Amino acid sequence: MQLYARGMGAGQPPVIFIPGILGSRLSERASGKNVWPGSFGNLVFGSQANLALPFDPKTLEVLDDGLVPDGLFDQALGQDYYGEIQRTLEAHGGYRQARAGEKCEPAQPRYYVLDYDWRQDNVRTAGKLDALIDQIRRDCAKPAQQVDIVAHSMGGLVTRYYLRYGSTDVLDSNALKPNLRGAAKVRRAILLGTPDLGSVTSLHGFLTGRPIGLSSVPPEVLATLPSTYELFPHPLNVWLVTADGKELLRDLFDIDLWRRFEWSIFNPELRRQLGRAGWSAQRLSDFERYFEKRLERARRFVWSLSRKAPPMKTQVVLFGGNCVPTPARLLTEEEHGDSVVRLYPQDVRQRVSGVNYEQLMLEPGDGLVTKASLLARENLDPSQPRHPGVDFPVAGAFFLCERHEKLTGNVSFQDNLLHALLSRDWP
């Protein structure tokens, strides 16, 4: 890849890298103490309860908890998350990391990192992205400067929203009319492992917690984070089936469904635990109203990414995994008169002869994001057109045999990333 750095100089757009969920460090504003990922012990054994976001019981809006983004979560526990992609841009692409507020060097290609509070609503993060781009324009004294974006996982959803709406919050109504204000500022957007039609694995977290080290982020903590709802499967997805393979059309963004299945904060055992921890009935009631508001806002968010938009000049390139069995559907079966949800094929108890539960519940992907979701398709058959309810023009898609957390370190991705960034006439 050393050839990529030759001949670069003036004219190469700045690159902004946007990590995914959990991808930015979080520290206390007042003391500077790092909270996420925190110490080795916290990352491996911690309860992660301090990641929960407080909210106002009257407005149901998130309150400031004093934590602020504090740089990229590059590596931990021997696992490289984002350090390798920085080394690729620097050593092989000839880029130098810059920070907002620094005067541009005309002959030096630059990249920036959008470290952000990944717990917050993705629309809020789109606003931070817009502010960073505007600052880059001022730093470079180029009012019309465009940028390239490289985004991993949820960072890709932030990017897609930004391309369509800029920093405008359109989620207060169902109109969701794209204005392409962000697209005017972006030349190319390279999305890596982005759940463009959502992730069933995100549901797993709300039911059993999100694994981290030897512990997990518990469901009641995830339920306070606005961004996690916006990872749910798009309404066009069939995300729930029965043991005989029948598709169930259920509205995941309807709070009554969560009550009926007793999921997340509606789980009786979890509610008893919260009660023992000092939660009052009023606090639980407020949490339910907060949960309902987040579900509805997430519904509008996922639809906002698929609404028909005017043609845009921004080139969107996809990279993702396609060889790891990845959760694509939950399964429900009756047990003692109750509907019980199974997360994985091996959990199914009342098996029906002739049904392949691996094929029914899993699809090719990267372990977290299916290939179909990456492509914003409700099915994997490439001969079938994308659903007319999904407007998602892409300039190209590349597939890797890699897991979600290792995509950024994949050599094939790094090589093709530099080709996509540095080619003047790509594709």
Main features:
single chain; 427 residues; alpha/beta; Rossmann fold; 2 domains; 7-stranded parallel sheet; 4-stranded mixed sheet; 13 helices
Number of strands: 20
Lateral arrangement of strands in the main beta sheet: 7-8-1-9-10-15-20
- Cα shape: globular
The average pLDDT is: 93
Here the CATH topology of the largest domain equals Rossmann fold
Q: Proportion of β residues?
A: 15-25%
Supply the CATH superfamily name of the largest domain: Alpha/Beta hydrolase fold, catalytic domain
The number of distinct structural domains comes to 2
Helix fraction bin: 25-40%
Name of the top-level CATH class of the largest domain: Alpha Beta
Distance between the termini: 19 Å
Summarize the biggest pleated sheet.
7 strands, parallel
Helix- and strand-based class? alpha/beta
Would you identify the regions where 5 or more consecutive residues have pLDDT less than 50? none
Q: Under the CATH scheme, which architecture of the largest domain would be assigned?
A: 3-Layer(aba) Sandwich
